[in-house]
Amino acid sequence: MSGTLPFLAACRREPTPHTPIWIMRQAGRYLEEYRAVREKVDFLTLTKTPELAAEVTLQPIRRFALDASILFSDIMTPVEGMGIELDFNPGPVITNPIRSQAQVDALRIPDPEENVPFVMETIRILRRELPAHVPLIGFGGAPFTLFCYAVEGKGSKTFSTAKSFLYGEPDASHALLGKLGDMVGAYLEAQAQAGAQALMVFDSWAGLLGPGDYRRFALPALERVMARIVPLGLPIIYFPNQGSTLLESVRTLPVDVVGIDWRLPLSEARRILGPEKAVQGNLDPAALFAPPSELLRLAGEVLDEAGPAPGHIFNLGHGIERTTDPDQVARLVDFVHEESARRKNR
Ligand code: CP3
Q1: Comparing C-alpha atoms, which of 67, 132, 90, 103 is closest to residue 280?
Q2: Catalytic residue among 30, 149, 187, 238
Q3: Is 224 in the active site?
């Protein structure tokens, strides 16, 4: 029964025999088998070729005893169909950044099955090929994070151009955020219909906003996404990266799980979010560069902080680094399973 798989049970705050674990960016360049695929095709081609996208999704599942898999794609993949021109180098690059109301008005809300049929086909292949005990997470970007790339045109530490547009043109910004929210809502719904078993929303740049502006700009568009996907009944994970000062607002969102970056102890996150939310996280990705004994000590601290209550999914506090040794990942996954099971039995 899929409902009893540890990952899905933990999303619902039900007890599990061990703490489930998966790793953000678990498919990627730290794996030599991923680099071998990328030697033959560029990143965009990889995301648009269902057999290859499914293959790289499965790579970490073959290597490690992970409790969930995540569709191989990118948060920016579905924006192309809106009329936002996308490239990767290595992060997203937008060749026609959105900087005016007229550009916002011209954006379309595409039908996901027509816009990104390759994503839906990747999900269908994965549901056939994944072992039955490994559920598949579908995902999308949060409207504010997509807004950051769409307006800035590329990655940035501060996203100053995007934030200037936000404060200088609040009406056009609200319109853009609303359109991105409608697009992501439809996109996630289509992933669920294709077979995704949980849905995750990545808000990688939420931490650029203070709580007031987060409530003013980010939250209304996010609520539009939720209005579309909550009725589907799948577990929903929301990850507000660097969002420790935003959790009071996140608490009111109708999501099952909140991803926590490594800057906030999970006990604090649980205290702010209350007993109705599960938490996911939050080992510092840099811990994987420590000697094995120190890695396991730091992972034990994350288990300590999560405490004995159900509703913890172990993960890193952000994506795994490209230079990580895969053997360290294997050690971490096995340790989390064994140590959490030992603690539950004592
Ligand atoms: O295994 C998985 O987690 C699934 C695949 C996945 C990718 N991107 C593949 C990818 C997921 C879930 C994402 C989400 C994503 N993409 C986010 C949100 C998560 C986060 O990290 O905050 C963001 C902000 C992006 C945008 C993006 N795409 C960036 C910043 C980059 C460059 C990353 C880098 O490390 O240089 C990408 C490209 C990208 N997306 C890669 C991968 C594996 C590297 C591409 C390559 O092979 O060259």
Answers
A1: 67
A2: 149
A3: no
Of 162, 187, 156, 224, the residue nearest 80 (C-alpha): 187
The answer on pLDDT for 2 being more than 50 is: no
Based on the residue annotation, tell me whether 29 is a catalytic residue of this protein.
yes
Tell me if residue 164 falls in helix, strand or coil. Answer: helix
Per-residue CA distances from 26 to 1, 56, 120, 135, 327 (Å)? 25, 10, 20, 14, 13
Helix axes 143-152, 160-168, angle to 10 degrees: 110
Rounded distance, CA 117 to CA 80, Å?
Answer: 13
Average pLDDT, the chain: 97
Distance CA 164, CA 167 (A): 5
User: pLDDT tens for residues 50-80?
Assistant: 999 999 999 999 999 999 999 999 999 999 9
In the structure, which protein residues have their CB atom closer than 6 angstroms to any atom of ligand 1? 24-29, 38, 43, 70, 72, 74-75, 88, 90-92, 139, 155, 202, 204, 241, 319
Query: What residue owns the CA closest to ligand 1's atom 17?
Result: 75
How many angstroms separate the CA atoms of 43 and 21, rounded?
Answer: 26
In angstroms, the CA 208 to CA 213 distance is 10
What is the share, in percent, of the chain residues with pLDDT greater than 70?
A: 99
Q: Which of 38, 127, 216, 343 is catalytic?
A: 38
pLDDT confidence of residue 346: 77
Is residue 74 flagged as an active site residue? Answer: yes
Which fold would CATH assign to domain 27-63+68-254?
A: TIM Barrel (3.20.20)
Q: Which one from 67, 74, 203, 256 is the annotated catalytic residue?
A: 74
How much is the pTM?
Answer: 0.97
For 276-288, write each residue's pLDDT tens digit: 999 999 999 999 9
Domain boundaries, given as residue ranges, for the chain: 27-63+68-254
The atom number, within ligand 1, closest to the CA of 26 reads 1
Please identify which residue in the block is written with the tokens 């086909």.
121
At 345 the pLDDT is 84
